[in-house]
Amino acid sequence: MAVGLVDAGAAGNDRQYGGRITLFVALSCVTAALGGAIFGYDLGTSGGVSSMGPFLREFFPDVYRRMHGDVRVSNYCRRGRRPSMIVGGVAFLAGAAVSGGAVNVYMAILGRALLGVGLGFANQAVLLYLSEMAPARYRGAFSNGFQLTLCLGSLAANAINYGADKITGGWGWRLSLGLACVPAAFFTLGAVFLPETPNSLVQQGADRGKVRALLQRIRGTDAVDAELDDIVAAARGGGGGDGLRMILSQPRYRPQLAIAVLMPAFTQLNGINAIGFYAPVLLRTVGMGESLALLSTVITVVIYTASTVVFMFVIDRFGRRTLLIAGSLQMLASELLIGAIMAAELGDEGGVGRGYAAALFVLIGVYVAGYSWSWGPMTWLVPTEVFPLEIRAAGQSVTVASGFVFTIFVAQGFLAMLCRMRAWLFFFFAGWIVVMTGFVYLFLPETKGMPIEQVGKVWREHWFWGRVVGVDESQASDKL
User: Fold this and answer.
1) Which single residue of 83, 140, 152, 276 could bond 316 by disulfide (Cβ 3.0 to 4.6 Å)?
2) Separation between Cα atoms, residue 293 and residue 287, nearest integer Å
3) Please, is 205 exposed, middle or buried when counting C-beta atoms within 10 Å of its C-beta (0-12, 13-18, 19+)?
4) pLDDT tens digit string along 425-472?
5) Nearest to residue 38, comparing CAs of 92, 81, 99, 98?
6) CB 252 within 8 A of CB 476
7) From CA 40, how far away is CA 35, in angstroms rounded?
8) DSSP-H helix ranges across 165-222
9) Cα 395 to Cα 5, 370, 459, distances in angstroms
10) Apex CA 324: angle with CA 27 and CA 148, to 5°?
11) Positive/negative CA dihedral, 390, 393, 397, 403
């Protein structure tokens, strides 16, 4: 390997890297984090546009009448985080253009497919980029840039939906969908000028001097050899194998595989994206008018964004486990109260009293706040922290794929479940919150402030995962 060799046994100790937060790394992470904005805008647009009459009349007239009467990404990402971000941005740009100009349902489907490809590439690469560029002491705050821009993108989308719904002529939905080009353009152009991460350069066999110079610029200090040695050792430990095959077949990667699948799964099964997608529909179900429901959704996203900002200041102080458990308890209480009010007050024809509708809106805000300073950003942060370099790209692709699979499951089933289960749907989500809280308490170790190349030791010291990894595999992990 062109980067040179280092005694792998010396790497992975409890040493801390030097350096400071530099303007270079801050600007790089801010630019990369714009990938969250395209995801947030897409989430925010989907629910709002699907409740607009002109859109339904154009593409789903039957629904309108009744209402009124991939693994391949991981292989590509091994070639670099920056190229994957560029590909994702270009695909999302194309999808936004096709969606905004759709004249039939086939164009609408093609647009959604392109948007999905773009999000698949961008979501994987951006999260890896942020976790690898950020200083270990502030990795939580830096990685939260993705979640923050996701919130801002969703806020912009909901505000645009609210305004577009009032446009006469029935073309407001085209504006909502087409304006997705704006964050995508900024993200794509910014990615062109971003540096590659040192971890990715080492994995590709770049010259050690080149990687050291980049790392010195990122960290703002000349004392980067300890961190570089750990990165090189991690690359050596991978042996150049197929990351996906390794994570699926080798016992030492079982803990990371469980985190990659379950963290995004729990995030969907607690109901947040169901509420995000269909908040306007849900609020209309309990008696709010169309315009008021859209406005209420905007207010909810403002709460989401404000709570995410709070998270940036507390994540590296209190740690991952504490915030996940506390946020889960807040979400659980909100879900139970929402379910209780709907069970007691929601009639067969829908609608509750004005006071109860206001209470539901407040409880949704409390629920969203609890999510946005715990599971929201942590779902993206924790998986990027726990994967060693040799399987990091493949592991993140599993995380993104799991998130999308469960998003599809919840998004497709939410309205049908709401109609059939009614208030019990929220008790269903509350049950999953209990399960995921127990998972965090029992099976998720703390990774606060730990250099990303040294996280492997937490599995070997864990009461349960240490048995799964095994003694021989833990010795292999010491060489990462």
Assistant:
1) 140
2) 9
3) exposed
4) 889 999 999 999 999 999 999 988 888 777 878 888 899 998 888 654
5) 92
6) yes
7) 9
8) 172-178, 181-192, 198-203, 208-219
9) 25, 27, 16
10) 25
11) positive
Residue type (1 letter), 325:
I
Asked if residues 51 and 294 have their Cβ atoms less than 8 Å apart, the reply is yes
Enumerate domains of the chain plus CATH numbers.
22-196 (1.20.1250.20), 243-480 (1.20.1250.20)
Q: Which two tokens stand for residue 163?
A: 């305004």
Residue 138 CA from chain centroid, whole number? 18
Burial class of residue 160 in the structure, from the number of CB atoms within 10 Å of its CB (0-12 exposed, 13-18 middle, 19+ buried): buried
Scan for tokens 């010491």, then name that residue.
Answer: 478
Q: Which residues of 312-336 are buried (b: 16+ CB within 10 A; e: fewer)?
A: beebbeeebbbbbbebbebbbbbbb
Instruction: List the structure tokens of 189.
Output: 């152009």
Give yes or no for a contact between 180 and 96, defined as CB atoms under 8 angstroms apart.
Answer: yes
Helices (H) and strands (E) in the chain, counts: 24, 0
| The two three-digit tokens of residue 445, written as one number | 């170790």
Is 18:157 a contact under the CB 8 Å cutoff?
no
Q: Which of 191, 188, 164, 182 shows the shortest CA–CA distance to 27?
A: 191
pTM greater than 0.90? no
Distances (CA, A) of 464 to 87, 260, 441: 40, 17, 12
Residue 155: phi and psi, rounded to 5, are -60, -45
Question: Nearest-CA neighbor of 96 among 175, 193, 10?
Answer: 175
The residue type of 341 is: I
The residue ranges of DSSP E strands in 120-270, in sequence order, are none
Return all residues near 477 (Cβ < 8 A) that are at least 6 apart. 12, 237, 252, 388, 456, 457, 459, 460, 469
**How much of the chain exceeds pLDDT 90, in percent?**
19
**Separation CA 408–CA 402 (nearest Å):** 10
Supply the pLDDT for residue 346: 65
Residue 69 and residue 82 in contact, taking contact as beta carbons nearer than 8 Å? no
| Residue at 480: amino acid letter | L
Q: How many CB atoms neighbour CB 42 within 10 A? A: 26
pLDDT tens column, 104-119: 888 888 988 898 888 8
C-alpha–C-alpha distance, residues 436 and 450, integer Å: 24
Q: What is the mean pLDDT of the chain?
A: 79
Distance of alpha carbon 158 from alpha carbon 448, whole angstroms:
34
Q: Which two tokens stand for residue 17?
A: 């890297």
Q: Which two tokens stand for residue 191?
A: 């990615």
